[in-house]
Design goal:
The protein has 204 residues and is α+β, with helices and mostly antiparallel strands. It has 2 domains: 37 residues, no CATH class; 154 residues, GTP cyclohydrolase I, C-terminal domain/NADPH-dependent 7-cyano-7-deazaguanine reductase, N-terminal domain (GTP Cyclohydrolase I, domain 2). 44% of the residues lie in helices and 24% in strands. It has 8 helices and 7 strands; from the N terminus they run αααββββαβαβαβαα. The strands form 2 sheets. A 5-stranded mixed β-sheet has the order 5-2-3-6-7. The protein has a two-stranded antiparallel sheet with strand order 1-4. Strand 2 and strand 3 form a beta hairpin. It is elongated.
Amino acid sequence: MTVDRERTRAAIVELIDAWGLAGDPRLERTADRVADASAELLAGEGVDPVPALREGRIPAADDDLVLVRNIRFSSICEHHLLPFDGWIHVAYLPGDWITGFGRIHDLVATCTARLALQERIGEQLVDALITGLDARGALAVVEARQDCVAARGPKQRDSDSVSVAARGTLVAGEARAEVFRLIALGAAEHGAEHGADDQREEML
């Protein structure tokens, strides 16, 4: 999908006018900035992440669990057009194929650079791993802080939300439990290194 920059700019000008702020010198370049940012923020719209995973497939030497933790992300809520951000943890049990870790980061970038819901991001990630890598199982944990909750409505700035999506052999069982154990371990280590509190580990 290609963002129409001029229409986006015109829409922001109209929005500023609708808010009663037309001519405000603080907002002189706001419409241009939003139009430019939109191309980056929505770069994943309409992009199928599966072909990139298939192109990056490597024959698997074994069928051991693969987990990529603490992938930072940001996205735009489709309900209020407000940002949300946090961490994503992605795990899969390979079949015949694995992929480079960079491809997993690219997968997350594609699935989050679009209008989204937190729960749907996880679903898209695990579906792509199952389809693109023929994985036996896939699981994604998405931890986020929602600006639509923090800045309006209940105004709960410290509230996190956690969603889990799983397919195949990671829907239940010992392998799934091991994923959560490793994610919690990583959260504890991450918190100790960066002086964060223990909320992330407790939520998992």
